[in-house]
Amino acid sequence: MVAMKAAVFHAANEPLTIEQLEIAEPEGFEVRVRTVASGVCHSDLHFVDGFYQMKTPAVLGHEAAGVVEAVGPLVTEFQPGDHVIACLSTFCGKCERCLEGQTHLCTNKPQRSPDQPPALTWNGDPVGQGFRVASYAEQMLIHENGLVKIGDDIPMASAALIGCGVTTGVGAVLKTAKVEAGSTVAVFGCGGVGLAAIQGARIAGARKIIAVDMVEHKLGTARELGATHSVDASTGDAVAKIREITGGGVDYAFEAIGLKVAAEQAFEAIRPGGTATIIGMIPVGQKVELPGAAFLGEKKIQGSNMGSNHFKVDMPRYIEFYQRGLLQLDQMITARARLEDVNDRLRAMKEGEVARSVLMFD
Ligand SMILES: NC(=O)c1ccc[n+]([C@@H]2O[C@H](COP(=O)([O-])OP(=O)(O)OC[C@H]3O[C@@H](n4cnc5c(N)ncnc54)[C@H](O)[C@@H]3O)[C@@H](O)[C@H]2O)c1
Ligand SMILES: [Zn+2]
Ligand SMILES: [Zn+2]
Fold it and tell me: Is the CB of 60 under 6 A from ligand 1?
């Protein structure tokens, strides 16, 4: 057992508190990783805001890069000193979804069994490992199928973003929707995920990329990262503007906010035969309402989970995009902070101040 500092989530709408926790030594296929950088993704905030529930106390954070410190006896893929990115899409490799190649939808994600000691404890009591990653902490205990090795020369803050937001946004475009060159695309929400989707659309060769947000500086960043048009949803009807720009609707729309109305707008904004892809986490219990007659126009709507990733092959490819300058990750990091600043960084995200905050541990 190793002592470490972590931010503990107690209950919705309460601040996380920094505590001294204990993390177990790796067993079996587990790896203990020293966290170097952890992005602050809106999915954590949805739990803090009470729109999604998890058992507490728990440690949140799931967009992380770090250095391997210790490996379990069955691990052959990693060794101490390796630089890694964590991914919440841990997979078993044996369930029907995994065997059909949809490892991101694994139905039997590996985790400690009740007869093993808990991964995290606080004064001897178990603490939940949010998203099986729990990166708002100095150390992480992750199954080897939740990690991928990266080069020692990749900046850790940028690598961390690939751990969730980038894989989610780029993957939604390239893997879930499979946007073709020459397409028209609209992206609702220009936070970490939306900005990654915009870059995915640029990489795919989209002809028009329309960024939609309520905050002007977010639209500015979106244009720098590849949007050809921007629409300020705070000043009028975003769907009407998208229809005007495209002469009748986009081929592909992406919702990257987590808002029922934005999901409905994304569906409205596509042309007949177009596809709307919902990435955002719409609060549990809320329904998305669609005009039934629109299905006669062969309009399609689908979800996207973590960019439909096969992260062990996708993440190294996204790093190559980064090295070639196709994926601009450094530009997405608008603030670096410490673990102790986590509540303030969640606030900054809620208030639309930042593209992405990254907590740095070194
Ligand atoms: N499906 C998945 O696997 C997956 C993975 C990661 C994140 N997510 C979800 O994706 C969503 C986006 O995450 P993020 O980290 O980029 O969040 P973020 O807070 O960084 O970005 C959201 C953006 O939406 C904008 N926005 C808010 N209301 C708007 C409105 N009415 N119209 C237009 N723009 C509006 C905000 O200004 C902000 O720029 C969240 O719901 C998150 O939980 C889903
Ligand atoms: Zn995330
Ligand atoms: Zn599986």
Answer: no
